[in-house]
Amino acid sequence: MGRFSLAGLPSALAEHVPARARLSYPQQGRTSDVAFAEHEGRVVVVKRCAHPVYLAWLRSLGELVRRLHATPVPAALAKEKDWTAQQLAQARANLSWCDGTPAGLIELERSRPPPVPQRLIHGDLALDNVLIDAEGTLSLIDWADGGPGDPRHDIALALQTKPEVELTAAARDAFFAGYGSAPLDDDTRDWFVGLSDYL
Description:
Blueprint: H1 11-14, E1 22-24, E2 33-39, E3 42-48, H2 53-70, H3 83-94, H4 102-110, E4 119-121, E5 130-132, E6 138-140, E7 147-149, H5 151-158, H6 169-179, H7 186-196
Antiparallel strand pairs: 1-2, 2-3, 4-7, 5-6
Helix pairs in contact: 2-6, 5-7
């Protein structure tokens, strides 16, 4: 793996690393670059996942999510209710403890994207809930929020990696090549990521 400099860090990550830090590089693994950034006794561990295998994994994740969204909703889970309206109601109920704000929720309610047909979704498709085995087979875990819903929610969460990582255009393209559709527009993606702050 290649070494990286402080100048090569995404801005959202660089703000957590002292500008004058000295980088040292421990023994490296096979898929990521790791460095210790040390400044005035403070040490921050920086890990960059830059191996080309990640593009293949993201394409495979896109394919897996496409298959999930193409799976008919089981009759036992089918609901006629508006999924987005239910999520916004839950967001209002969660205001006392969630990461969102009342003003942010008002904006979400005002800017709600137009509805799409419900599909079978995972409901919490953060990359933390994707497992990859030694052969590269992907599995999804933590299905507590699975059921009929808006597929754009899964897509937005699958691609939400900030502030730790900013996906490159090639990484996003790899996901959508597997998923088989055009990327979400930024406003729609940001809306669903914003909603997740309340759930």
